[in-house]
Each structure stands twice: as structure tokens, then as C-alpha cells.
Amino acid sequence: MLQRIQSIFLAIAIIGMGIFLTFPIWTKVSVSGEQRADLTAIKLTHQINAVQSNVQPVYYLTILALLVAGVAGYAIFQFRNRVLQSALCAVNSIIMTVLMGLVIYFTFYKTAKLFDPELPGKYDIGFYGMVGAMLANVFANRFIRKDERAVQQSKRFR
Q1: Above 60 in pLDDT, residue 67?
Q2: What is the spatial distance between Cα 57 and Cα 79, in angstroms, rounded to a whole number?
């Protein structure tokens, strides 16, 4: 059934990935205010001054986020096969862990060398969309396993 709680959590994971794709993930502004670094799902921009900037494409973040949303969307309609649905959630957890690792790499290691290494920057709503998607995926997997246990227990009682 599509109205089960795990379907709602998987839909929240899709929405979280949509937020990750559309909003900025991370921002850092220098103390002087001249330099700025912004990370989105498409590019990492380092604004050196009013005229000069470096743009590094990070399309693989977009590809991974779309893959997570696609797997979650597919998992919603696999409600008849809870084992497959749970496996898809596990795959999503792995992909989201890789995605989180890449974001952390960019925010802590790649951009820390650009300017003001003591300033950490701030995470924006896109990052929190990814965190929300990760939590929703964990809860969906938990409720899928709970349903599977209930079905197995009811078969045992017959």
C-alpha cells in the first residue's frame, strides 16, 4: 500500500534531495568581506574579488542526489516486496553517505585552503535537506523491517 508510513518517509527523502539540489549547501565569507565561497549541487564558486572568480563544476553531487531521489521513488512502488524495498533503502544509505562525505570534503578540505582557514563557513538549507533525507531514509528502512517482521510473525501463527 502506498499510504504506509515508510512511503511517506521515502517521499520526504525525495523532497530532501530536491531541497539539496535547488538551494545552496554551504557558504563562507572572508573577514574582510572581499572573498566568498559558495557550494551548490552544481558548482563550487570562489569569488576572489568583484571581477575575478573561480568556478569548479561538481556535477557528480547532482548525479548522486538524483540517483538517491530515483532509488527512493522506485522503492516507494516496491511495497509488495519488502525485502527489495529494504535493500533499496540500504543502497540509498550508502549513496547518501558518499554524498555527505563529498560535501564534507569540499567544505573542510577543498575550501579551507582558499582563504581564512580558521573560519569554518556555514551550512545552508541544502545541507539540511540532505540530512533530513538521510534521517527519513533511516526511518523508512526501520518501518519496512518492522512490517516484514509483522508479516513473518503472522505467517508463523497460521
Answers
A1: yes
A2: 37
pTM above 0.85, yes or no: yes
The partner residues of 37 in beta bridges, in order of sequence, read 28, 46
pLDDT at 82 over 90: no
**Average pLDDT over every residue of 32-55:** 87
Strands (E), 17-107: 26-29, 36-39, 43-47, 53-57
Strands (E), the chain: 26-29, 36-39, 43-47, 53-57, 122-123
* Separation between Cα atoms, residue 38 and residue 127, nearest integer Å: 12
Q: How large is the average pLDDT for residues 83-94?
A: 93
41 and 62 Cβ atoms separated by less than 8 Å: yes
Q: Which of 147, 148, 138, 145 is nearest to 72 (CA)?
A: 138
